[in-house]
Amino acid sequence: MEILKRLLTFAKPYSHYWPKYVFFTFFGMILGIFNFALIKPLLDVVFDPDAMIIVNELPSFSFSIKYVENIFNYYLTAVVQSSSRMGALLFVSIIIVIATFLSNLFRYGGQRVMASLRTRVIANIREALFEKITRLDIGFFSKRRKGNLISVLSNDVNEVQANVVQSFQIIFREPFLIIGYLCVLFYMSYQLTLISLASLLLSGWMISKVTQKLRSVAAEAQSTLGTLLSIIEECISGMRILKAFNGQKYLRHKFKNINETQAKLQRNIYYRQELATPISEFLGVTVAMLILLVGGWLILHGNTIFSISGFVTYIVFYYQILIPFKNTTTAYAGIRRGMASADRIFEIIDTPINIKRPEKPVPIKEFRHEITFNKVNFAYDDMPVLRNINLTIQKGAMIALVGPSGAGKTTMADLIPRFYDVSSGEILLDDINIKNYQPKDLIGLMGIVTQEPILFNDTVYNNIVFGAENVTEEDVIQAAKTANAHEFIMQMEHGYQTNIGDQGNRLSGGQRQRLSIARAILKNPAILILDEATSALDTESERLVQDALTKLMKNRTSIVIAHRLSTIQHADKIVVLQKGEIIEQGTHAELVARQGLYKRLCDLQTFN
Fold this sequence. Notes:
The protein is α/β, with parallel strands linked by helices. The protein has 2 domains: 348 residues, ABC transporter type 1, transmembrane domain (ABC transporter transmembrane region fold); 234 residues, 3-Layer(aba) Sandwich (Rossmann fold), CATH 3.40.50. The protein contains 22 helices and 10 strands. The model has no long low-confidence stretch (mean pLDDT 79).
C-alpha cells in the first residue's frame, strides 16, 4: 500500500478527484444493484403472479433496502391493478432500461475521473524521473548503464501504467461493488452468503500464494531488459567498430543469451499472472453450484426461504459478485508485477543528490580574482584519484593541465564546476568555497568544450543557443563567425535551421567541435574549460578549431587539458600531474629546463 500511496502523490493535487469518483461510483453501484434486483418482480409478473408482493399503501421513508423494495412494489401493484400483466411487464422493462442507462452513465463518469487520474500520475512520474536524472551528479551515470536508465524511463513507467495505475479504477471501484452485492446477498440469505464469502476468502488466499513471487521475478525481468537495451545502444553507437572487427557474431550470441533469459522470466510472469483468473473463476463456479444444490434442496423440500424467482435472483447476484472479485484478483496479480517497476522508479527518485545546494547561497555574478585548490583530495568510491592538490589560478591566466592518461587531469577540471565534490580540502573562487554558491550560478560563469562534442538532435541554431536566454539571431551568427562555423552552416540546406541528426552525425568532427565552441562563445563565460578539444581532429580541422579557441580564450581565464603539447606552449602556467599528484608546474621554458616528466613528454611529440 505504501507504493500505491506514493504513486497517488504524483496526481497532486489529487484530492479533487475523489469526491467526484465516489459520487459516480456510489450511484452507479446503487443503480446497478437495483437493476438486477428487478429480475425478481420481472419473473413474478411473467411466471408467478401469485408470488408478487402486494403493497397498497405508500410506505413511510426509511434508509433501508426494505423501503426501496416496498416503494417499488407499491407502484408495481398500482400498475397491475389499473392495467394488465402486460402493462406491469412494460413498467418493469422501462425501469430496467432507465436504471441501466443511468448506471452506465455514472460508470462512464467514474471512468473519466480515473482516466484523468491515471494520465496525471504517469505524466508526473515521467517528469519527476527526468528532472531527478538531470539533477544527479556525473558520478551517478558512471555507475549506471545507459540502457538501464532508458528502461526505467520507458519500460518501467509503462509497466506501472499497465499494471498498477490502470488498476486504480479496479481497486477503488470493485470493493464498492463487492460490498454492495454482499449486503444484498446477506439480506436475501445470510446462510448461503456465508458459504460464498468463505469461497471468496479462500480464492483470495490461493491467488496471493500464486502471485507472491511476481514482484521479485518481474524485478529480475526488468533488469535483464535494461541489459538488453544497453547492448542495443552499444551496438548502434559502435556499429563502425562492430563491423571493422567482425564482432557481429559475438554480439548476436551475447544478445541471444540475455534475450532468452528475459523471455523465460517473462514467461514465468505470464504463467503466474494468468493463473489468477482461472482459479477465481473455477472456485466461483464451484461455489455457485454448491449454492444451487443447497438452495434447490431447500426449495424442493418445501423450505420457504426462497421463492423460485427469489432463488434465481440470488444466483444472478452471486454471479455479479464474481465479476468484481475476478477483476480484483487480476488487478492484484498485475499490481504485484508492477511493484517491481515501481521499486526501480523510486530507487532513482530516492537517490540522494550529492551536489548539495547551500541553505544560504552567496550570490555571484562575476569572477573577480582567482580560483584556489587548497589541499584537495578526491576518490571515486574508495579509489583515490587526486591527492593533496594545491594550485592557484589567477583571473585572465591560461593554465594547462598535462600528464599521462589516468593522471587526473579531467577529474581536476570537473571539480571546478562541481560535477563532483571534493573528498577533502576545498576549492575557493574569489576566496569563497564553491560549495557556498548556487550550482547554477557557479556553472553560469563557465564554458566547457570537451574532446567529444556533445550535440543534440536539433537544428544548428538550437544547438548553439542551448541553455542561453535572451539572445538574438545576430548574437548567434556572430558567435558562429567567431568559431569559424558560419561559412559551413550557410552551405547547409536550411542554414541555421538545418537539423544535424543524432549527436550531430550529419557533421564532420571539426564542424561539430566548432558548433560546440560557438555555443561556448555565445555564453560568454568568464572561465573556460577545454578538455583536449582538438586531439581527435585532422590537421585542417585542428587549425580551424584552434583558431576559434584562440579567439574564445582571449581575455578569459582558461583551464586547458592538453594532449598535443604544442597547443599549450604559451600557457601562463603548465601543471604536470602524475598518479593524481602535481609533480611540476611552471612555464614551458621552465619545465623543459628542469628535465622532468614534462620534458620527457615533449620529447615524445614533434612540435610545429
